[in-house]
Amino acid sequence: MKISPADLVFKTLIDWYLTNKRDLPWRQTALPYHIYMSEIIFQQTRIDQGLQYYKKIIRHYPNVKSLAKAPETDFLNLWQGLGYYSRAHNALKAARIMADKYYGEVPGSYEQLIELPGIGPYTAAAIASIAFGQPCPVVDGNVKRVISRLRALKTPLDKPELTSEIQKNLQSAIHSFNPSDFNQALMEFGALVCTPANPQCTSCPLGKFCKAFISGKTHLFPVKAAKKEKPVVTLQY
Ligand code: SF4
Questions:
Q1: 9 in ligand 1 pocket by Cβ < 6 Å?
Q2: pLDDT digits (tens, 9 = 90+) for 90-124
Q3: CA dihedral 177, 180, 183, 184 (to 10 degrees)
Q4: How far is Cα 189 from Cα 144, in angstroms, rounded to an integer?
Q5: pLDDT tens readout for residues 161-215
Q6: Nearest to 131 by CA among 119, 141, 143, 140
Q7: Could you say which of 29, 46, 88, 115 has the lowest number of CB atoms within 10 Å?
């Protein structure tokens, strides 16, 4: 594959990922339901906290059809301790829809996935790319931080313009790569190397591409949301 200079940073990132990725159960399978369940559980839970829950849920409910038939209390009991119970309720609702509408399979397109309860743009893009190889970039907090630093983007983190700018940038790049590796590499890199505090810049494989690092301004990126001024209230007695 011929790599353009603009894509070299992503090629380097994916090479790093393929050598350094954590060995996680949903990375050893191509089963969309397993990938779906990992994305639902790890939306709001750290991997070390949720891993045992993931294994337990997959053991009890190994596919969409078994989850669709699960009594609510049984599934909620398994979920107990994971928190954010709306995820569990939505997973049950989604399983029943998938059983009825998609013959018990996880649907393969972003548009179908985002219609399911509990699935937003990030999760739909993650499942579509990882389970089905669709070129849908994911833009979560990790990805925003990595790209903001690499490109020294000045748009603050809380602005929707930052998400759309990054989305556009990644959308054109993802087509040159395996979409699953592309997205997972960005997320893994943000979780392990380009971390919120103390990123490992001196040993970073992307250091030579990183505008924030090259300019010695890593600490300034991503640009934080501006603090809202407190309103001044005048009281008259
Ligand atoms: Fe992140 Fe530092 Fe690497 Fe830049 S050099 S991508 S800031 S870890």
A1: no
A2: 999 999 999 999 999 999 999 999 999 999 999 99
A3: -120
A4: 12
A5: 999 999 999 999 999 999 999 999 999 999 999 999 999 999 999 999 999 999 9
A6: 119
A7: 46
